[in-house]
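Hey all, sorry for the wall of text incoming. These are the two entities for the joint prediction.
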Amino acid sequence: MTPARVSVRNVSKMFPRRKATRVRGISTDGWPALRDLLQKTMRREHERHTREKRDQLWALDNVSFDVAPGEIVGIIGRNGAGKSTLLKILARVLSPTAGHITMHGRVVSMLELGIGFAPDLTVRQNIQIQGRLAGIPGKRVLASEERILELSGMTPFRDIPLRLCPSGSAVQLGFATMMGLGAEIVLADEVLAVGDAAFRKMCEEQVEAVGAAGVSVLFVSHDMAAIRRICSRVIWIDRGHVVQIGPTDDVIAAYMTELLAGRLLAPLTGDALAASCRLLAARLLDDSHAPVGALSITNAGYLDCLVRVSRPDVTALVDIELWLHEHHLFTVTSPPMQAPQPTTFRTAVHLPGDFLNEQQYQARFRVRAVAHYDSAGAPAITTEERLDFRVINVHREQSVWNEWTGTSKGFISPRLTWRLSRAQ
Amino acid sequence: MSSQPTIVIEARPDTIGARLRSLWQYRAFLGFLSKEIVMRRARGTLLGFWWVLLRPLMPVVTLIFTFTSVKPVETSAGVPYSVFFLSGYITWRIFQSALNFLPRTMTWTQSIMRRAYFPRLLVPFAGLAPTLIEFALLLVAFVVVVVSAWWNDGQLPLRVGWQMLGLIPAVIGALMFALTVGMPTAVIALFFRDVRYAIRSFAGVFMFLTPVVYPVTFIPEQYRWAMYAFNPMAAIVELSRWALIGGALNTGYLALSFATNIILFIVSVVFFLRAEAYLGDQL
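and here's what came out:
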């Protein structure tokens, strides 16, 4: 068995969770972070972090795996699962909170593709800079320059400032540099997310070629098709944990099943949950569905609203409260709204004619977002929308109160049936 | 496999020794970073690189004009004020200019630091590059002033001799003290940008607490020790002036100043190396 090129053992990464604070116009956001840094710096021994989960975000929790030489490993998982954190730790941009990693060979990383190129410098100078960033000596970079230019298809532009090159050049150059520098370990974060089809095809071929040449590639992507084409093994990470490591097709199948079931989305609480359902509009419609500002007392109308539900694991309910001055008259609740795709729902409640009185009413629309997996949890209430509307009496003779003059009394004025008979 | 470097990443931060070794491994990076930092200021400006030359000359002209024409200052050595002033100012400016640049270099190189590993200590060292360019320029300005004074008065206002080598420890001392103050400042500037503005104003005020625009004899004898004890720059500026135009030099105070400087410098470097491991989260 060949020894592992990269071996990751029990790696964890914790980020303290911090709230933005502001005291009398002075932003104190930096204080906790600075205090944290100073405390760690002054400490003589590197202490083990307490596993108190409160106010801590474990971006990676006890992650272990090996990568063999020449192996192309895909890392998948939903946004925020910890994929990029893992690559950043491997690239030594972040340091792990616990665990250790051994890597044999030079590491080239492309963490933010295309960023860090100097637009005023020529293509060749940029290749030099990228090589230096990868820790590769200048001579070696010069030696691989031709190959990089050829890979990126930028040989004719070699001495032209990058800003004058065709758009997308930075991305192509970045990828070509990463592949062409001749390192033993390549870390690539979402490189295939950009560029045209031809470029992506070239990228995939290159990754396969360097893999065949014995370079280990760790490759983060959301593009399952690309992963399926080029990776021999896949690591699926969710919420900092390794869920599954194994042959590409098996892991992707399991991941897709979970993803489609909507169970993979992060548990939503508070603001994030509230943000998943939004009230786009609240209107009063008359009985012919035209928006109006007032209803005639005898005519029916609708309280109509548009609700955007942007996550499949959340159900939205609209509560409409009807208020008259300080009095809460009643509440009606809409049917539940839920969809696998982000969807805008329209829902309306029918207000019958001869029901409300000649008054100034206020309808308060409120969207309640309920997370599926946590039915016991408190629903998040999005900001409410208030709609003031009048009910007026345009056909006084048709009104139930037609013998009355002036505004009638009472919160509502329903047309109720009377029975009249002679008492025995 | 054995020819390939092996990288070990541990949760425990590297020892200071290991960090200094990696500093040496990455020494080639210093040139690249210095160039980035120098050119960073030139990008997108009309005058481009000429700003590096213009900036230090403006205060020189203002200060020389003020203390010769507006409020003349008597220099004891009998040399023209412009020569007297520049003989101390060229060293002082190293400190002031470095404090101007160092807190900003960390934010300038942030995008590089986010993407690649290299010893972060290279950043403050590379941040001294524009300062050294300014120093070279001020040295030229000094020569010009000396020659013009020679032309006017017929005598060279300079003491030529071995003691001129004293300028070298003066420059090194100024660079060290600038790093001593600048490195922790650069770290804190990542959290609070206020530090950048504060340190610039501080350096401006600090100049008048240092015998730069006036001779040290302006300060009453009984208070001078306080200035030397709490302000390592005072002895450094005096050394620079002594090296160029001669005059008295108190070696006791000079030794005290350099001792404080070296101790503070080591403390500052160790602080930076220790903080380095945790900077990643902040970038």
